[in-house]
UniProtKB/TrEMBL annotation:
Gene3D superfamilies: 1.10.150.130, Intergrase catalytic core. One of its GO terms (molecular function) is DNA binding. GO terms for biological process: DNA integration; DNA recombination. Residues 260-446 form the Tyr recombinase domain. PANTHER family: BLL1584 PROTEIN (PTHR30349:SF88), PHAGE INTEGRASE-RELATED (PTHR30349). It comes from the Bacteria. Signal peptide: none annotated. Keywords: DNA integration, DNA recombination, DNA-binding. This is Tyrosine-type recombinase/integrase. The lineage of its organism: Bacteria, Pseudomonadati, Pseudomonadota, Alphaproteobacteria, Hyphomicrobiales. InterPro entries: DNA_brk_join_enz, DUF6538, Integrase-like_cat_sf, Integrase_catalytic, Integrase_recombinase_N, Tyrosine_recombinase_XerCD. It comes from Microbaculum marinisediminis.
Length: 455
């Protein structure tokens, strides 16, 4: 043959089309080369060549267009555990360390059966396209107890925290995913925990700050990352350190949580916002605002109230703030009884009447994402009255206002903490005793607090 035709090869008395597959595409096609018989003569091979070449090109094009998909969410530690489970299911000895005998023979037979599923490379004889799952099983068969357990990765740590700490809380899970997307943009989440360095932590911090987030938000995000890694280290008995510990975000006020920098509303602002809501918002938002202003409760505590939590017929009207199937509470100390006075008492009456036969006081907002929706809606009306003020939070500023009023009324720290559902140690626990005694004390101090003006 005077003309050299690419991929055309004579083998003995026959001719064939032979073309090597690029290494990156071999796992997809499951072979190291494409071989197509072309006949017993050169003339016949040349006639069939164009069709064979087109077929090979098509196979490669399909492989390029459809790359292999990794098993969804599978980590190296996952594959190690699956391989270990498979070894156990086969009845093999997990403590085998390579000794000769029936155990070794059984392992060799099983390994050969796995390798036999895959085509062999024409030149090396090695299997091609072996899945990562089968690679893990083969290593477990060959090495036995000599195989080292992989160190958990960042992804493993995140999943463990999600399972054992988040426990199905959708809001917390979304936040966890959001934070680790930021981490993953800097450090591959497949990175083992024992290979994380201080510079990695600094790079993650800087990336978060570069996104325009406040130092307080970044510090909160890093607290989640710290908790995730610490939990994985403890639960897996790891000896490595957490490089995110004691990582400073910034100095001064910028690291203080935003909610603590917000000023309280003045009484005049509260009244103007109430009028704005009454005129331009739905009745539920107006009633929620009045209850927030008169109790100092958190927004989710009010939107999650049931009709049964409102005790209007008691000698001292009050609400019971407690967790239930439709609403969880922030902390254990959030469970409490709050007296109703003045406009908050009137708002509670109107809310119970408006709820009718419903079990929930504010059904539209006692749901997943309900408090956020209420906050956003109220925030628009707050902005309409006082403009966008950075140090004013739609509901946190109401809690600061109540805290200031209680302070002006002379409420001891422990009583104020219990009233607001704070956890401040032993002082707040000193106000135990009966419900009646608590209502007497808290109602009296609330009446005095509401008479104090915030200007």
């Amino acid at each position: 043959m005077l003309i050299q035709v690419r991929y055309l090869q004579q083998r003995g008395k026959s001719w064939r089309y032979r073309r090597k597959v690029p290494p990156a595409l071999r796992p997809i096609l499951g072979k190291g080369e494409i071989v197509i018989p072309l006949g017993g003569s050169e003339a016949e091979a040349l006639r069939r060549y164009r069709k064979a070449h087109a077929k090979a090109e098509q196979q490669l094009a399909v492989a390029v267009a459809h790359p292999p998909q990794a098993a969804p969410g599978q980590t190296e530690l996952d594959r190690f555990r699956l391989a270990e489970s498979q070894i156990r299911d086969w009845g093999l000895d997990l403590d085998w360390a390579g000794e000769d005998g029936p155990e070794e023979l059984a392992r060799d037979v099983l390994a050969d059966s796995i390798v036999g599923k895959y085509p062999a490379d024409a030149e090396t004889g090695d299997p091609t396209g072996v899945s990562v799952e089968d690679v893990a099983v083969l290593r477990a068969l060959r090495l036995g107890s000599r195989l080292t357990r992989p160190c958990p990765s960042l992804e493993d740590a995140k999943r463990l925290y999600d399972k054992e700490r988040v426990k199905g809380d959708r809001k917390k899970r979304l936040e966890l995913e959001r934070i680790f997307r930021l981490v993953g943009a800097v450090v591959d989440l497949s990175r083992p925990l024992d290979r994380l360095e201080r510079q990695d932590a600094k790079d993650v911090r800087d990336h978060m700050l570069d996104g325009g987030r406040t130092a307080a938000s970044v510090d909160r995000y890093l607290n989640v990352v710290r908790a995730v890694i610490n939990h994985a280290i403890a639960e897996n008995d790891l000896a490595c350190k957490n490089p995110f510990m004691k990582l400073e975000v910034s100095d001064g006020d910028t690291a203080i949580p935003d909610r603590l920098l917000r000023r309280p509303f003045t009484d005049a602002e509260v009244e103007r916002i109430a009028q704005q809501l009454h005129t331009n918002a739905g009745k539920s938002l107006w009633l929620i605002w009045r209850l927030l202003a008169g109790t100092g409760c958190r927004l989710a505590e009010v939107t999650g109230l049931r009709v049964a939590d409102v005790h209007l017929g008691h000698r001292i009207p009050h609400i019971v703030v407690e967790g239930h199937k439709d609403r969880r509470l922030k902390t254990k100390s959030s469970n409490r009884v709050v007296p109703l006075k003045g406009d908050a008492h009137a708002a509670a009456k109107e809310a119970v009447k408006a709820a009718g036969s419903e079990a929930l006081l504010f059904k539209a907002y006692c749901r997943l994402g309900g408090p956020d929706a209420a906050s956003a809606a109220i925030g628009k009306h707050v902005d309409a009255v006082i403009g966008k003020v950075s140090k004013v939070g739609p509901t946190h500023s109401l809690r600061h206002r109540m805290a200031d009023k209680l302070g002006l009324a002379g409420a001891p720290d422990g009583l104020r903490d219990r009233f607001l559902g704070h956890t401040k140690g032993a002082s707040s626990e000193s106000y135990g005793g009966s419900l009646e005694a608590w209502l007497e004390m808290s109602s009296a101090i609330l009446a005095k607090a509401l008479s104090c003006r915030i200007l």
